[in-house]
Amino acid sequence: MPQISCCSTKFSSFGVSEALELNENRSFGGFQEGELMREIRFTDTTFRDGHASLWAEGMRTGMMLAVSKYIEQAGFTAVEVIGASHFKKCIRELKEDPWERIRLVAKSMPNTPLAAMSGSSAPATFGIAPYSIMKLHLDRLAANGVRRVHVMHASNDMGSRIVAAVKFAREAGLEVVVALVFSESPRHTDEYYATKAREALEIGADLVYLKDPGGLLTPERAKTIVPVIMRELKGLPLEFHTHCTTGLGPMTLLAAVEAGVETVHTAIPPLANGSSQPSVFNVTNNLRELGYGISIDEGPLRVASKELYRIAKEENMPIGTPLEYDFSQYIHQVPGGVISNLRHQLRQMGMEQRLGDVLDESVRVRRDLGYPIMVTPYSQFVVSQATINVFSGGRYKVVTDEIIKYALGDYGEEASSGVAPEAREVILSRERAEALSNAEYPEPSLAEVRESFGGGISDDELLLRYAVGGDSDVEAMRKAGPFKNYATDGHPIVSLVKTLAQRGELDQVAIQQPGLSLLLEGKARATNLG
User: Fold this and answer.
1) Number of C-beta neighbours around residue 73 at 10 A
2) Distance between CA atoms of 57 and 125, rounded to whole angstroms?
3) Domain 334-437 maps to which CATH number in 1.10.3430.10, 3.40.630.30, 1.10.472.90, 3.40.1180.10?
């Protein structure tokens, strides 16, 4: 295959010669004309990672319900519906009940397995949840309509926390998909991922997926790492999940399929591309051209995409677009969402011009910590410490509690073992480190956790309060009333009428089209004149 050079980084890709070979010989990847091609399956990420990447987890329940029936018709292997961090976002900012979201989406998609992203922190964003809460969270996900769980540890630590998560998920009747989180560093070799694949198999994963949160995997690397992982899985299915942050996501996905992956994760535009997953339409078109079978029907998805574009325009939400190749992403590896938030904070301080300095320091902090994978929560830990180093006048003059706990091993031996000796000495040579080293992490029973929130509340209510640390945010969510309905049932005129009816400055609006004449007067009073 030809080598394509881009920004001094070489990677294998599909070029002109392969296209000609496919056209003339009808063969590719070992298939000959007349042979049964592999059929590629799809997991949809629009409702979870798609809007987490592009809309800061701002997709509302009504938006999902406006398109869920179309997504249901497509035939996805699974549809991601929620993640652990979404609970706090739903309650505090969107003022929506995440449990109601899951139930309603599940009801509207009875034939499609819903998936949740979970881990040792569920249902909170950071910190380590007690085992009683982890188990209850997985139990209630299943009870409310989730049928599959994506389990991830940010360090690929297949120790006690993930073992417990897999056990609890199985007991809840959930299909368990264990993530192997990809990163670029001297530590993260193909052999490293071979070891992690064996460990995932040993702890009882039903499936495994190679998760590339930074979009760092190249087509060339995909063709070496995928066969190594699949060899160790001994027939256990491997799925592939990447992001388009570096501009290589769609090409890397194709390379992963050629290497043997049979299920890929994609999103529906406008919640595809950008820092999200590759577009389902781009991927299906390219796979067909390469001779692969497709397991989904794109027809209903085009309707869903049209509706999502309408909603994005109505709510002034960003549209995911393909990104140019960005080699700097391989240097600092800070996720796009973290960079956006950092830029916003620096702008508020009048220091946006120091963004480059913070990213440069992030490279040094990550190296000091032994190359943690730049995914939540580690990406936030690294960037926060880098920012402090830049603005405090000295490296590690002030150290965050999370960095100290990282070095102490609170986030697992897999994470702390790589901390450079000189950095460990500096980080732990302060009084705060001594105090944190003596800290205990209790494992309260479920009854004790429930009592801490006043007792007498349901399991779902308990988890809502745990996610936000109290009841005031939950009460505010309840008082906000029902969620907004975005559905038009395929009739744009309905959406137009709703929008115009909310425009208080308009006294009268006339809508004319063949067979229909409407007059809006006053506060949304419509009179049929035809």
Assistant:
1) 18
2) 13
3) 1.10.472.90
| pTM for the full predicted model | 0.84
- Judge whether 488 and 307 are in contact, CB under 8 Å: yes
Looking at residue 385, its amino acid is Q
Alpha-carbon gap, residue 508 to 528, rounded angstroms: 14
Q: How confident is the model at residue 413 (pLDDT cuts 50, 70, 90)?
A: confident
The Cα 269–Cα 421 span in angstroms is 46
CA distance 393 to 110: 57
Determine the straight-line distance between the first and last CA of the chain, rounded to whole angstroms.
65
- Going from the C-alpha of 106 to that of each of 100, 113, 395, the distances in angstroms are 10, 8, 49
Domain layout of the chain by residue ranges: 3-25+43-315, 334-437, 446-479, 492-528
Residue position matching structure tokens 């996720």 = 335
* Lowest mean pLDDT, pick from 173-182, 414-423, 433-442: 433-442
DSSP SS3 for 333: coil
Length of the chain: 530
Return the CATH number of the domain spanning residue range 3-25+43-315.
3.20.20.70
Distance CA 477, CA 372 (A): 36
Residues in CB range of 467: below 8 A, 6 or more apart:
87, 88, 91, 123, 124
For residue 107, give the amino acid letter: K
CA 18 – CA 262 distance, rounded (Å): 21
Are 90 and 52 within 8 A, CB to CB? no
* Helices (H) then strands (E): counts for the chain: 24, 14
Instruction: Name residues whose C-beta falls within 8 Å of residue 153's C-beta, 6 or more positions apart in sequence.
Output: 119, 120, 159, 161, 162, 179, 181, 412, 414
Q: Which helix (H) or strand (E) holds 423?
A: helix 421-428
Q: Where are the alpha helices (DSSP H) in 73-159?
A: 86-89, 98-108, 131-144
Chain segment 190-227, per-residue pLDDT in tens:
999 999 999 999 999 999 999 999 999 999 999 999 99
pLDDT tens per residue across span 53-83: 999 899 999 999 999 999 999 999 999 999 9
